[in-house]
Write a structure and sequence with these properties.
This protein is α+β, with helices and mostly antiparallel strands. It has helices at 15-25, 27-33, 39-42, 45-54, 96-109, 126-134, and strands at 5-9, 56-62, 65-74, 79-87, 116-122, 138-144, 150-157. A seven-stranded mixed β-sheet has the order 1-2-3-4-5-7-6, with helices on both faces. The chain is globular, with a radius of gyration of 15 Å.
């Protein structure tokens, strides 16, 4: 390809690219569960724009193209909630998801109130589970989402990520 993938904070003008990437990247998950009503596929563009305004949203860029994205926020009990980690299918399996995960952890760990990170994935999503376990997450529970998919909830302590930072 000749270009490096960079990770940075998303801008408001990235909303449509993130929206299209999310729809493309979560097709494999939908197929895995035989369920095309999963939240990343039914989220509206306006809802995504609201997340861009309120949450930490990072993007991975290859030139001008958004090829990865992740979102995070810290709630009142100090839990950094990480969601919608996605990588363009043509770039999956090359460590970009792990880079995005470390970057959002680094950003969220900058909030002094952050004590842990929490995320979830579908129970059949072995590649996601492998990524999260390799990153130090352990299963702390499960639940069934409103779309009927059984989710695995994973956590890790924020102190494990205090020296992480976003690489530009």
């Amino acid at each position: 390809m000749g270009m490096s993938v960079t990770i940075s904070a998303a801008a408001a003008e990235d909303a449509e690219q993130i929206f299209k990437l999310q729809y493309l990247a979560f097709q494999r998950e939908a197929e895995l569960y035989g369920n095309y009503r999963i939240q990343p596929l039914t989220q509206s563009l306006d809802s995504l724009k609201g997340e861009l305004a309120a949450d930490t949203v990072l993007v991975a860029r290859l030139g001008d193209e958004v090829v990865g994205s992740v979102r995070g926020s810290v709630d009142e009990d100090g839990t950094g909630r990480i969601s919608k980690l996605c990588v363009h299918p043509r770039l999956q399996g090359h460590g970009l998801g792990a880079r995005l995960l470390r970057a959002v952890e680094g950003d969220l760990a900058g909030d002094a109130a952050t004590v842990r990170f929490r995320l979830h994935t579908g129970h059949r999503s072995e590649s996601n589970l492998r990524l999260y376990r390799k990153a130090g997450y352990t299963q702390v529970g499960g639940r069934t989402a409103s779309d009927g998919v059984r989710l695995v909830i994973l956590e890790k302590e924020a102190k494990d990520a205090t020296d992480l930072a976003v690489s530009a």
